Predict the structure.
Amino acid sequence: MSTRSRELRVVISVGKRKTAVARAVITPGSGRVWINGIPIEIFPIELARLKMMEPLLLAGDSIRSSVDIKVNVGGGGVMAQADAVRIAIARGLVAFTGSEELRQLYREYSRYMLAGDPRQTEPEKWMRYSARRWRQKSYR
């Protein structure tokens, strides 16, 4: 095995939240992060940007400046996409570094950063307008 193939290490990770799916590709680099082709620093929605940057800030500057992350996310709403990106980045960084300390740090900060959030919307029932709503009765 040549030294070049040992240095070029790529990790692909997936994060899901509700119906949003994020796929992150982590490669050795200089600390750049793109979300659907947009650098994370200029992502338009501030609250979503802060949520997506949580795993990077917790990981520290040494790990953050040594990897490039490209994330492709689709489906769901804005905050579900932000949560999916957050999960994908956290899982990818743990897999890329192989660090048990980083995994423990993420687990202590928020369990859902690695495990995901199992909550889903309840399916709509037949002859109803939504999952729980039923027609009003005019008597009683």
Remarks:
- The beta strands are 11-17, 20-28, 33-35, 38-39, 67-74.
- DSSP finds six helices and five strands in the chain.
